[in-house]
Design goal:
Layout (H helix, E strand, L loop, with lengths): L8 E6 L7 H10 L4 E4 L11 H11 L4 E4 L2 E2 L5 H15 L5 E4 L4 H6 L7 H18 L6 E4 L4 E5 L11 E3 L4 H10 L2 E2 L11 H14 L8 E10 L11 E2 L1 H15 L3 E6 L3 H25 L1
Parallel strand pairs: 1-2, 1-12, 2-3, 4-5, 5-8, 8-9, 9-10, 10-11, 10-12
Antiparallel strand pairs: 6-7
């Protein structure tokens, strides 16, 4: 574990509450120069708009920022159709789409929406199969066939082909799921709410072990981090991890990049969203970029 040397990126975790000015916040993130907008996917949440519809609208009203589900509720999103949706949005947006996948959570709510309740082992097997199905559907090939326990393709034709490769990021935390992410995913997408700094060494070690066992270089796996907290007034006191002034955030994110190999930070802020976004983009991001660049040069 340490600095993997990957280029840094920064994003915004947009909660899709139906009553919020969602497109205005997305435009602000784009205008502020952030790289990514992630939207959580909870179709059963009555207060939320649909994630894929929102991602499409965001792509339509922005010009540069990339969008992704953070992360898809796979039990409610059939992977072949999900792959088609992602490829279509990528084509229409000029390649500004990535794909975050989750094995499933909140099983009672999933069942209420017609999805299947899965055991942890079934959910992991379905996630593994979904990766295969999605990549086949992005291949541009005809007569696609796959026979799994949870998903199948029976002579399907793929298309459209994404104009640039779409990265698959797994939001997982269990030992076997981390091994799967290391072996097959383009990135790992945990959140600071459960992947705390105390847990990161163990989680990252399992991720890297999975990559090595699959013959991959661990540096080829992007390490994203949804950072939940509040950026307070400059010069103020700290109230704990990711809860303090911009200089504290710069310290902590720099340490996460250089000490833990995390390369992409997605802000999931508490409080006034516009104020938090501006502080992050204007006071935290440039400082982290500068500090990491200096350390790497030295």
């Amino acid at each position: 574990m340490g600095d993997y040397g990957r280029a840094l990126e920064f994003g915004y975790f947009l909660v899709p509450a139906a009553g919020d000015p969602l497109l205005e916040r997305a435009r602000l993130a784009d205008d502020l120069g952030l790289d990514l907008i992630g939207v959580q996917d909870h179709p059963y949440q009555r207060r939320y708009v649909d994630t894929w519809t929102l991602l499409t609208m965001i792509a339509a009203v922005t010009g540069r920022i990339r969008v992704f589900p953070d992360v898809v509720s796979l039990p409610l999103r059939p992977p072949a159709v999900l792959a088609k949706s992602a490829a279509s949005l990528s084509l229409l947006s000029g390649g500004r789409v990535e794909l975050g996948l989750g094995a499933g959570a909140f099983w009672e709510a999933i069942e209420a929406y017609g999805g299947a309740r899965r055991t942890p082992a079934q959910a992991l097997a379905a996630l593994d199969e979904a990766i295969t199905v999605i990549r086949k559907v992005w291949s541009g090939e005809r007569n696609l066939r796959f026979e799994g326990e949870h998903y199948r393709l029976a002579g399907a034709h793929s298309g459209p082909v994404p104009p640039r490769p779409i990265e698959l990021w797994l939001g997982v935390g269990g030992p076997r799921a981390l091994a799967l992410a290391g072996a097959r995913a383009d990135g790992w997408l945990p959140s600071s709410t459960w992947a705390t700094p105390e847990r990161l060494p163990e989680l990252i070690a399992r991720l890297d072990e999975g990559a090595v066992a699959a013959g991959r270089d661990p540096r080829d796996v992007r390490r994203l981090y949804n950072v939940n907290g509040a950026i307070t007034e400059p010069g103020g006191p700290s109230a704990g991890f990711l809860n303090g002034p911009p200089e504290q955030w710069a310290d902590e994110l720099t340490d996460l990049a250089l000490g833990y190999g995390l390369d992409t930070f997605v802000l999931w802020p508490e409080g006034d969203q516009e104020r938090q976004l501006r502080r992050f983009a204007e006071e935290v991001v440039p400082e982290v970029r500068e500090r990491v660049a200096k350390e790497r040069e030295g």
